[in-house]
Amino acid sequence: MNLQDEKVIIDIDAPDNIPRRFAFLLMKDFTLLSFASAVDALRIANRMSDKTIYSWLFLSEDGNPVSCSAGTSFNVDNNLIDLHRDDTIMVCGGINISETTTKPILNWIRKETRRGLKIGGLCTAAFTLARAGILDGKRATTHWENQDSFSEEFVEVNLTKSVFIIDGNRMTTAGGTSSIDLFLKIIADDHGEELANAVADQMIYSSIRTDQDSQRLSVPTRIGVRHPKLSLVIQMMEKNIEEPISPSVLAKDVSMSTRQLERLFRRYLDRSPKRYYMELRLQKARNLLMQTDMSVINVALACGFASPSHFSKCYRTHYDTTPYRERGSKSSRNVI
User: Fold this and answer.
1) To the nearest whole number, what is the mean pLDDT of the chain?
2) Neighbouring residues of 298: CB distance < 8 A, sequence distance ≥ 6
3) Are strands 73-74 and 158-160 parallel, antiparallel or unpaired?
4) Per residue in 106-122, pLDDT tens?
5) Low-confidence spans in the chain with pLDDT less than 70
6) Are 76 and 60 contacting, i.e. CB atoms less than 8 angstroms apart?
7) CATH number of 3-202
8) pTM (2 decimals)?
9) Is 219-332 a CATH 1.10.10.60 domain?
């Protein structure tokens, strides 16, 4: 088949056919997959439409090359310049997002958004947008591993578990391949579903997700067990970390006895419901210790522990270190 025959013709007459320009701000240690997926979707849209309908430029805080989290360095076109009013900013985040979110970047984001520019955050960059104060009252998303710390710090943001969110002129993604989903949506809105589908085909992307799709695998898939009552109990546990529900109440809610629930967890997960619940709470605690500046006491309370001493004892038993030592090692690790 002739490749030319597969192209989608976009009927836009000059001089109105001005490419929509995206300005990608590359933050130090940005995630390569999220960034590359977005740019390549735009590149393929140009190719499949046989027109330059999109253009882009790369920025960094100081105009110098930026390294992604995989270690590869990328040249950029400019520093934090004044953009055109019809440009769209895409902030590319990654690991160590708290440290790489600097005052110059925050000031630039605030200035450009006051001028009316659309802005998006790829991967963990929702943190940067929230820190700039431009997500207050908005729906947003970020990588599932960072949701606990994000929701604790930015209470004015309506955080969701979606793969991407568009709320007015604000856009956020969950990271990874969710950039593809967001940009396919942008392309469809700009030039129609036919072009977006053609781009998806070129990317061998056969399952296009919407903002209604959740970023994480379902509970049965994650735990490798397809038992409806077990999945329901685990969902209830995950939604009630700060105020844990007793095994007897959990069992009653799924029309089981406490003993039946115990047997169910033993059979499929080789642990008691109480133990599994504790592991969920400790995992959230570890995320908060590593990703936020919350005090150990506040972390304990956020994870359902009545006292710091009980929290410390449980944490040491599970992770073979204390919460205070874990917090002390934070600076030596790659924290998202």
Assistant:
1) 89
2) none
3) unpaired
4) 999 999 999 999 999 99
5) 1-16, 212-224, 329-336
6) yes
7) 3.40.50.880
8) 0.73
9) yes
